[in-house]
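From: lab user (bench 3)
To: helpdesk
Subject: output format question, protein + magnesium ion

Hello, I'm new to running complex predictions and I'm not sure whether the block I got back is the full result or only part of it. Here's what I submitted:
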Amino acid sequence: MSTTGHPAAQPAMTMLYPRAEIAARVTALAREIDRDYAGRELLLVGILKGSFLFVADLARAVSTPADVDFVRIASYGSETRSSGIVEIRKDLEMPIRGRHVLIVEDIVDSGYTLEALCNLLLLREPASLRVCTLVDKRSQRATEVPVDYVGFTLDKGFIVGYGLDYDERFRGLPDIYLVKTGS
Ligand code: IMP
Ligand code: MG
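Helpdesk reply: Thanks, we reran it on our side. This is the complete output you should expect:
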């Protein structure tokens, strides 16, 4: 790992979602969102860091007028799994009361991160609150949290690229890869 100070070993990876497939899903999600929010204005709330490329593409793909803001959340747990204990590291800069808020997440796994954020944002009384995730690991869900827009559904496996990291690496890859864990 990079924490040792040595050059990081390259894990074995296979391409799962090529960039063209990601782009097609982003376009399809944007059409759904445009249909649902017709005549309204949106506030896209990206969860840093993983969603930064997804937000960038989604914001350009929707025709609905959309402002963009970000939150950064720390969730405690193992390297690849969150625990349900979450803390806001960087809050929104915009007030959301009375606004149509769409949370943009990279991956919903256990759902703990999202659930905590939704509960927190609901206290601020948005006009509506929905969730769009690039990848839904639905079968891994440990808590009930509604997800309204889903790019891809993934049963198992750890993925990197297009914003997603493994120990902060690989976020800049334009395609999404499955990391071979050997299990
Ligand atoms: P949850 O709280 O268990 O739903 O955690 C979701 C968060 O874990 C996502 O926002 C990601 O940051 C991270 N995560 C979960 N699965 C993966 C993965 O396969 N690759 C990269 N990050 C992941
Ligand atoms: Mg992460």
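A quick orientation on your result: The pocket of magnesium ion (ligand 2) is lined by residues 50, 165 (CB under 6 Å). Let us know if anything else is unclear.
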